[in-house]
Amino acid sequence: MTPFNRNIYHWLLYSRGTAGLNYVDEEYGGMDRLPPVAAACKATVNDGSWMVEAALPAAGYDLTGIFRSPGWKISCHRSFNHNQTAKEDGRGPEFSGFAPIPGQFQKPLEFPELKLGGKGTIPVRMTKFSEREFRIAASPAAELRMTVDGGKAVSVPNRNGVFESAVPAGTRTLELLLTDGAEVVFANRWNFPADPAPARRELREKQMATRGLGISAAGSFERIFSDLPYFGDRREFSLEAARNEFENFQLVLFTGRDAVDGITVEASELRSGKGGVIPAAAFRISREGSATALPVGYPTVRGAGDYPDPLFPLAGKLSLKPGEVRPLWISLKVPMEAAPGNYTGSIRVADGSGRTETVAVKLEVYPFAIPKKHSLKTAFSIWETSLRRRFFPDEETMDVAKFTALVDRYAMMLVEHRLTPIIFGVPALLPKRVVDTSGQSFEMQPDGSCEVKAEVYDALNKKYLEAGATGFCTGPYLWHFMTEDHEVPAEWPAVWRAVNRHYAENGMAKHAFAYPVDEPGNGLNDKVRKMTGVIRENAPDLKILVTGVNANFPSRLVDNIDCWVPALHWTNLKRKAEEQAAGREVWQYPCSGPWYPWPNYHLDTDASAWRAVAWVTAKEKFDGILYWATAIFNPDDPFVNNANGVNGDGVLQYPAGDGSPLASIRLKVICDGMEDYEYMVLLKNAVAEAKKQKRSPEAVAEAEELLKLDSVFRTMDDYSRSEDDYRNFRRRAAELIGRLGR
Q1: CA angle, 530 as apex, 528 and 532 as ends, to 5°?
Q2: Where are the strands (E) in 351-431, listed by range?
Q3: Which residue ranges does the record assign to the Glycoside hydrolase 123-like N-terminal domain (predicted)?
Q4: Which residues contact 8 (CB under 8 A, 6 or more apart)?
Q5: Confidence (pLDDT) at 36
Q6: CA 20 to 30 Å from 498, out of 84, 245, 377, 621?
Q7: From the candidate CATH numbers 2.60.34.10, 3.30.870.10, 2.60.40.10, 3.40.50.11500, the one assigned to the domain spanning 196-369
Q8: How far is Cα 178 from Cα 144, in angstroms, rounded to an integer?
Q9: The predicted structure's pLDDT at residue 478
Q10: Could you give the 3-state DSSP secondary structure of residue 416?
């Protein structure tokens, strides 16, 4: 069953090396309370082709679900290169044909032949595809209908089992539906971007006609590339925010034929008609830098190249050469004590000639606040190993106190952006001196007991909790079962008893979670059961959290899990609902996948995908978000990061030259999504109180309709790419919160 679509079944076929033992995930067939289905597979790999053969018994599947489905969709997901090197034929790492439902095949020419049973039929094979034309081989009796830009479907002639057609010039959306009799055998949708060349030429002409310095405001979703032409003349930006909320926009500086020197940018204070004042210090102005994206196989904004992301402090005066573009990021943090009302102010830009320009800023402050304590549970691991390798390369002489203070700055930046940090989460990758001094150490005593040493670690996590964080990680960690025989270490019962006692006594146990192993996979279910059993028996006050990228997660084959963390695109929603009904939590886990257009935090995708991760959590009723790393940057070049074939994965924070943390544009937009979630919670609470008081039935009905979230987020690849829609949701939510409170 593919995620988020209960009527499509998904079989996973694995191979080792070029050919070898293959199997269907042993638990995957047990989706409907029937025994698991196992099936033997055979793989044949030649120089230019490969084939996997498997007989998949239907006994373990709900056939009524299959027959209700709109059709079958087969997709090949050929693995990317784990070492991020090009393939032998020169191609870069890629995901070839990963196709969640609903979705589109990213590599249509690699759509495999599907042979059903002994019939030897080939329902469909795409032999040519581009935004200009396509050719599909199917049965001579098949019918194909093509829809362009959502218009009327037209038939494509079948010429002895071959469908061939040109795609009209300027097509933005192409849908193909192929049927064979009454059955749908192929259905897919493609989105084609507009040719950027004409628009870029027009922008370049306007930019180069600019005299002196050009300035313009832009929204936070707009990607401003310093190597592409830009022209704008927006001189006013309107914002709305609750107290204790960030609002963001961009200020773009550009030149035409003139060089401009001595540029300064400063914000004024904001004043309301009722005497309210928000100081200029509430604004943070940053210079946008670039990070490099490498070639990948998922859709991107502009392919490989430099993308705006790291945010540097704006220090001193700026100079622009002729034809240069320099975007600045403007963040406004509304003080908790700000009075509600309408405020005005400006961003002032001056150059060395004495010329001054301003962008007016209008702000409406709502009569409520985003709470200091985060409503959405998160766990974002920093992974300090890159910081250590780049800035403290000598393990023997490194200053542990300075290193710990640096890690603390990264952690506090995450808390400020409504994310809970995991610090020193992989101790095996850190020097023992760091773990012993600033992390958690577990010292076995002569009598067989254990003593927990965590004075600095506990103090740091208490600080994060007081600043709004939702929890912290504790206990020993076996990264991918880092023991030779995958067995639970003999000292673990004593260690976990000590950990439980330590945090029960200092009052932190209610915030603590054990994260003992990462992505163990179905092959280690027995070992994981033993591990979680030891923790449950000896540390009953702690929650146990386990991540999983295996296909069927949450699993019925593992016990004692309080927080399941499945990869979003592999979540078994039926099991998710069962676990949540039993009082356990299920978080989502963006880690490499899923790939755009599904929401994730990748560098080279649309900004809406970053903000929408929080909306997935709300829409699909996940209990939290775990992200594997925020600062595991390339130690040799921190601004070129391609982990697991995904650009920017694991890097939401960059290092400055001295190692201090730089926020990213992605981190700012992710924070906006977390604040969206707070609006949802505030509105839900207002609805509950209004119902309790039996008031405002019309407003209650309107709020419940808005809380379906359909105005912004409908499905995994059908959500708004427009920042205005997210802002309109907040405006509407704020208005309803006010009405429900009266």
Answers
A1: 65
A2: 356-369, 377-381, 421-422
A3: 233-366
A4: 1, 2, 69, 72, 73, 101
A5: 45
A6: 377
A7: 2.60.40.10
A8: 4
A9: 77
A10: helix
User: What pLDDT does 93 receive?
Assistant: 42
Residue 364 burial by Cβ neighbours in a 10 Å radius (0-12, 13-18, 19+)? middle
For the chain, the straight-line distance linking the first and the last C-alpha, in angstroms and rounded, comes to 47
Q: What is the DSSP string of 207-240?
A: HHT--SEEEEEE-TT----TTS-------EEEEE
DSSP per residue over 692-739, as a string? HHT--HHHHHHHHHHTT-TTTEEETTEE---HHHHHHHHHHHHHHHHH
| Count of CA atoms in the C-beta half-sphere (13 A) of 508 | 27
Type of residue found at 512: A
Domain ranges of the chain: 70-191, 196-369
Residue 68 neighbours by CB distance under 10 Å? 10
Specify the pLDDT at position 82. 38
Residue 493: other Cβ atoms inside 10 A: 17
pLDDT of residue 172: 87
Only one residue has tokens 């002569």, namely 446
* Structure tokens given for 203: 């922008």
For Cα atoms 114, 117, 123, give the angle at the middle one, nearest 5 degrees.
35
Please give, one letter per residue, the 3-state secondary structure of 497-511: HHHHHHHHHCCCHHH
Q: What top-level class would CATH report for the domain 70-191? A: mainly beta
Give the closest residue to 552 by CA, choosing from 562, 566, 563, 564.
566
Backbone angles phi, psi at 591, to 5 degrees: -150, 105
pLDDT at 91: 45
| Rounded-to-integer distance, Cα 735 and Cα 350, Å | 38
Burial class from Cβ neighbours inside 10 Å (0-12, 13-18, 19+) for residue 328 reads buried
Give ∠ CA 83-88-93 in degrees, rounded to 5. 40
Q: 186 and 73 in contact (C-beta within 8 Å)?
A: yes
DSSP structure class, residue 554:
S
Looking at the DSSP assignment, which residues form a beta bridge with residue 175? 147, 189
pLDDT of residue 183: 64
Q: For strands 377-381 and 421-422, give the pairing.
A: parallel
Amino acid at 474: T
Find out whether 170 and 176 touch, Cβ atoms under 8 Å.
no
Say which residues have a Cβ less than 8 Å from residue 175's Cβ, sequence separation at least 6: 146, 147, 153, 187, 188, 189, 190
The whole-angstrom separation of Cα 476 and Cα 459 is 18
Please tell me the pTM assigned to this model: 0.85
Quick one: pLDDT at residue 45? 61
**Looking at residue 693, what is its pLDDT?**
94
Cα separation, 553 vs 525, in Å, equals: 12
DSSP-assigned beta bridge partners for residue 24 = 13
Same fold, 70-191 and 196-369: yes
Nearest to 595 by CA among 550, 546, 648: 648
Beta strands in 492-634 (DSSP E): 512-514, 543-548, 563-566, 585-586, 624-627
Question: 448: helix, coil or strand?
Answer: coil
